[in-house]
Amino acid sequence: MSFIEVDDLKKSFIVRKKREKGKLFREKQTVEALKGVSFEVEKGDLVGYIGPNGAGKSTTVKILSGILTPDGGEASVGGRVPWQDRKEYVKHIGVVFGQRSQLWWDVPIIDSYSLLKDIYKISKSDYESRLKELSEALQLEELMRTPLRLLSLGQRMRAELCGSLLHRPELLFLDEPTIGLDAVSKLALRDFLKWENREYGTTIMLTTHDMEDIAALCSRVMVLGHGKKLFDGKLPDLLEKFDTIRTVSVKYETDDPVLDMPESVKTGRNGDEIVITYSPKEFPTPELLKALQNAGKIREMTLQPENIDHLIASMYKEMDL
Amino acid sequence: MRAYLVVFRMRLLMELQYRGAMIGGILCQMFFGLVLTALYRALYAGHPQSVPIEHVVSYVWLQQAFFRMLLATDPDLLDKIRSGNIAYDMCRPVNMYWFYYARIAAQKLMGSLMRGVPMLMVAALLPKGWGLTLPDSPLGLLAAILSLVPGFFCMCALENVTMGFTMRTLDPRGIQSMLNLLMMTFSGNILPLTLFPDSWQRVITLLPYAQLLDAPIRLYTGEYAVTEAFHIIPVQALWAGLLIMLGTGIWKANRKRMIVQGG
Ligand SMILES: Nc1ncnc2c1ncn2[C@@H]1O[C@H](COP(=O)(O)OP(=O)(O)OP(=O)(O)O)[C@@H](O)[C@H]1O
Ligand SMILES: [Mg+2]
Asked: Can you give the CATH number for the domain in which A193 is found?
């Protein structure tokens, strides 16, 4: 039996529309946020959960963290059903909602942590060693006495993460944890998550719109769209399936090289660089190289890493999302 | 248990920080106290009533001083429900009802003590017939304080019923304005319950709203004899129990059809 087992999970919301002119009652509309999602996750896995806005990712996280009760389907995490006996279940999990805050706005973050210590009934010694460890890993030592409202977004996110991990959850849900972070903070956060996962075998389920997060962290990725699971597997496999466009930048010794390319290849200029976007399916890479060399002496050439965002966008388009 | 006490303490400390709101609240309540006092003095002029004016005036001041216990919704909690930040509280291993009850109690207690104590001191210094008179007897004071406890539990329970409804509707205004009207009328805040006709009082004093402040105040002024505390406190405790049961029932029912906005 897997650690997380989700079978045919369904959830819909009733949305009341604005009352239309001439109608007595407001019309109700049902939004099917999840239309039967199934998956399994093994203990210690680090899984990415992606999909366009409104796909149902946060809804899944809310259900699996015991907050919402689904309309249908089954789920179990470590043998427990999240929405039954919530109080017992939530002791074992941690959640970070990127756009929300669990720490108290006006008080030093250390006070919020000490409240969490009492809520989760963490023993004093365990709390102290864990707090020390987390505050070092997340560089929070200097900020402990600062009220939350004075922290920057990146500092706040680190503080939130610390709060969610104090009680050593076996499973951590992260709903857009890197939202609004700068490059340095993102890298630090990813390193930290990797460390936590490796060190304690914490299972992590990560929701994000930043594909770099997924590439850096997740061995497995699930794609959700319109409440259905559309892909489940390794990121490279996903990329290969939808690998449609690549970008190459070339600089020539001569000023005006004449490129002879088929119509499917797009060329543009960026300073003295020529930027070429092509699809390997339509124009194989060896042929492209040949064509580039024929045009003149190449001074410099960079093959840009596949732009994952592009790829995902085209994937969402192809999947008709 | 500890978690609830700690959240209670944290909320108390937080309330202490809101000194600006405290001064505003005191001025507002002093104003109402003076206006109501003047009004009752005018009504009483030349028409002595069965209830002496001193009692009515003390009643008014005590009601104003503890107004914050009656009507004060924790803006943080409403905000949590509306924004969906309640999500974080729902993934804690605590009983949600009591977790919020502790916060409500802290906010009401500290909010009203911060305003009530300075106000009552000022009110006690006002000239006779305008200000707060001393309690009828030391025992009366003791009985009043004792009965304030179950009254306080009732007030917090009522507030948590409102919270429970708000979780359904996500908009507190409808239910709040209705409940507030009942509260203002039947708690004696607008018109002291002592001034209602006797036949009315027989019913009104049994309602939960009369248990909040009316009963303790009447023990203070001597309107109720000290021995009556033995009847009053059980009624209060009964209401506190019923309201808490109602609240926990609503919260439990909410679990199934909880709406957590945002995300
Ligand atoms: N409380 C709610 N009431 C009504 N509809 C809701 C509610 N919560 C979510 N929905 C709807 O359910 C669908 C899925 O929402 P969800 O928040 O799970 O999306 P998401 O995948 O997290 O999107 P995003 O990437 O934008 O965060 C959306 O269409 C949304 O409008
Ligand atoms: Mg979301």
From this structure: 3.40.50.300
Same domain, residue pair A277 and A263: yes
Give domain status of residue B50, yes or no: yes
* SS3 (DSSP) at A204: strand
Domain interval for residue B136: 2-257
Q: How confident is the model over A127-151, as a mean pLDDT?
A: 94
Enumerate the residues of chain A whose CB falls inside 8 A of the CB of residue B3. 115, 118-119, 121
ipTM: 0.85
Residues A173 and A47 occupy one common structural domain: yes
In chain B, where does DSSP find H-type helix? 2-16, 19-44, 53-65, 67-70, 75-83, 86-90, 96-125, 138-169, 173-186, 198-204, 208-212, 214-221, 229-256
The answer for residues whose C-beta is within 8 angstroms of residue A263's C-beta and 6 or more apart is none
pLDDT at position A109, please? 95
SS3 B188: coil
* B258/A67 touch (CB, cutoff 8 Å), yes or no: yes
Question: Count of domains in chain A?
Answer: 2
- Mean pLDDT value of segment B57-83: 88
Under an 8 A CB cutoff, do B91 and A95 touch?
yes
- Check whether B67 has a pLDDT greater than 80: yes
Q: pTM score > 0.80 for this model?
A: yes
Tell me the CA–centroid distance for residue A40 and ligand 1, in Å: 22
Picking from B85, B91, B255, the nearest residue to A101 by CB comes out as B85
Domain presence at residue B27: yes
In tens, the pLDDT along B21-50 reads 888 889 988 998 999 999 888 888 877 777
Total tally of structural domains belonging to chain B? 1
In angstroms, rounded to a whole number, what is the distance separating the alpha carbons of residues A39 and A73?
A: 12
Residue B176: the pLDDT is 82
Chain A residue with the nearest C-alpha to that of B90: A67
Instruction: Give the residue from A1, A85, A95 showing the smallest Cα distance to A43.
Output: A1
Strand partners, A233: A221
Contact B93 A90 (CB under 8 A): yes
**In 3-state terms, what secondary structure has residue A256?**
coil
**Is B94's Cβ below 8 Å from some Cβ in A?**
yes
Residue B80 forms part of a structural domain: yes
Confidence of residue A110 (pLDDT cuts 50, 70, 90): very high
